[in-house]
Amino acid sequence: MNYPNEIIKCLYERASVRSFTNQEVTKETLRTIIDAGCHAATGGNLQPYTIIEIRSKEKKEALMATGCMQSIVRNAPVSLLFCIDWHRIEKWAKINHAPHVLLESYRHFWIAFQDTIIAAQNICTATDSLGLGSVYLGTVESCFDELRPMFNLPNGVFPVVIVSLGYPNKLPEIAPKLLYDEIVHHESYQTIDADTIDKMMTKKYGNKKSAPLTEKNLLKLYKASKEVHGEDYANASITYAKELGHIHPAQRYFGLHYVANEIRQGNKEFLDSIRLAGFDWINGTSY
Ligand SMILES: Cc1cc2nc3c(=O)[nH]c(=O)nc-3n(C[C@H](O)[C@H](O)[C@H](O)COP(=O)(O)O)c2cc1C
Hints:
Blueprint: H1 6-12, H2 27-37, E1 49-54, H3 57-65, H4 72-75, E2 78-85, H5 87-95, H6 106-129, E3 133-137, H7 144-150, E4 157-166, H8 180-183, H9 194-205, H10 215-229, H11 231-244, H12 249-257, H13 260-265, H14 267-276
Bound molecules: flavin mononucleotide.
Flavin mononucleotide binds next to strand 3.
């Protein structure tokens, strides 16, 4: 493809990097990357986020010990923990006698979540542009509460995601994506029939995301389907997979990977973690 400029090339050719060389990411390089990321758009130009730079063996091992991290964290030279941070701004508001409801407002949380991720993505693009690579690690959501004492997170600071980065060991494969024709609807939402969606997703994944028909996989799929939709649905899931000769990518995604019954059970813990971080809006106060 003839790219119109280097930025478009960088965006088209990006891919998550999960294996890094030992090459050091210098302080200067990381500063350039992070400063570039912090130039991102942010609601009201408030930047309600903090990034914790993790390089020490001790902190990497503490993260590994939570059981919710892949070994990427151990092997990457640098990992960045992105946190929503209203703590800093609340202190600024208080000292200047401004009214402050930053931890009582869902709107503030919603905006800060977006701001944090937008900065993270700018940082990932800056990383790619310098010939390094990165990967998001969303599994922090399985150990929110353990991260609080580990990183001294005060009230109003909530961990969102880790980005591990470094120099790539090998160039990663570019994953197929849905693009303009599939993603854009013109002027209003257009409902698409299930067959068209299925074709679109098959074109995207092929059989790459399917899973083998092992006893273990079938049992897991059956259990997840039964718990959320009942026995008939579970039996139909298994029959479908057996007829296909493999676990369908959609079944793998929601029956084996993001396991439907476990994901649903996690809702309460998720909300409790937000409450534990001092966000009072979660208690549903109405004014
Ligand atoms: C919010 C978020 C969380 C992610 N969490 C993980 C993760 O825990 N482990 C991992 O290996 N990749 C993770 N990824 C990377 C995705 O798996 C990856 O972006 C996706 O497979 C598409 O591949 P690509 O980035 O190479 O285009 C995450 C990506 C995002 C945006």
